[in-house]
Amino acid sequence: MADQENPDSDSRPDHEHGHGHGHGHGHGHGHGHGGAGGGVAGRLKGLVGRAAHAVTPHSHDSADKTDTALESSSRGMRVLAVSFAALMVTAALQAVIVVASGSVALLGDTLHNVADALTAVPLAIAFSLGRRAANRRFTYGYGRAEDLAGIVIVVIIAVSAALAGYEAVTRLLDPQDMRAVGWVAAAAVVGFLGNEWVARYRIKVGREIGSAALVADGLHARTDGFTSLAVLLGAGGAALGIPVADPVVGLLITIAICFVLRDAAREIYHRLMDAVDPELVDAAERILSGVRGVRQVGAVRLRWIGHALHAEVDILVDHDMSVVDAHAVAVEAEHRLIHDLPRLRAATVHTDPYGPDGADHHATLSTHRAT
């Protein structure tokens, strides 16, 4: 049973109404929902604890989840720093050989590596912004800065593809001889290995912390590795007396870069459109269904904000349940979600009454709901 409430309602205290729970839940709660103590004394303690919980203003932002989010940002910054250094060293080694060989292809690859290193700048800004606390204007925080950085990276990949294609066509129309072919080949291998290592590092950590922008930047590094391979194959062609091999391979690599561009653009597009893996929704529904007191699971909405998940869910509880007990079920549902759903930082749980038959508990809102 989907419930579309006024988004401004989250700014009201949690207990001005009986069913909206806007909690960013913590891990260290002793709610007394079950098994706390024994006998009458234990049950009395649990009842008092739930009653106090129901009348106390809530700010359940988890210290553990916050620490995890900050650690994710720190890992992202560390990846950017290490990969920036690796790519600049790679470019410096290539630049020395460019001077010795006069290779236009290697010059293009060197400049490409420098550009790839510089993509760390928008991402570093995004990770830094993402660590700022939410406020009354940016109520969800600044995590979306990562998606903006992802757009910049996609544009850079597109420009890289265009430049690579242009250089390939130019060299195809006007092939040039290459000096120090062996050193050019060695520099191409260095470029490929450096970029591939950076790509794997960025993609691995990006997926672990849920950063689509970092994954896209890893894919960009991989495109630069492809460009280096083009230089290597071109050098091989030059050694065999086939100068046209370099631009032909360059065109093939341009096509490969376009496929990488498609994947990166799709990744960022999904984030901008609040797409999530359907398996995460299935997992959230399973978690909620297993919470004691939940009679039915309604709408489940998930979205990424930066590299953290946020959830808004509807659950149905018995219509004759007290406000205190219904709140306890909602808190337990929220608690279970945050513990069991990977990278979920905060959840808002809305409870609806289950029954009696024929009752429409949202009749007042029926004219405001989308058909």
From TrEMBL:
It is found in: Membrane. InterPro entries: Cation_efflux, Cation_efflux_CTD, Cation_efflux_CTD_sf, Cation_efflux_TM, Cation_efflux_TMD_sf, CDF_Transporter. It holds the Pfam family ZT_dimer. Residues 1-42, 350-371 are annotated as: Disordered. Residues 81-273 form the Cation efflux protein transmembrane domain. Residues 277-354 form the Cation efflux protein cytoplasmic domain. Keywords: Membrane, Transmembrane, Transmembrane helix, Transport. It comes from the Bacteria. Its main location: membrane. Gene3D superfamilies: Cation efflux protein transmembrane domain, Cation efflux protein, cytoplasmic domain. Residues 20-32 have a biased composition (Basic residues). This is Cation diffusion facilitator family transporter. It comes from Actinomadura luzonensis.
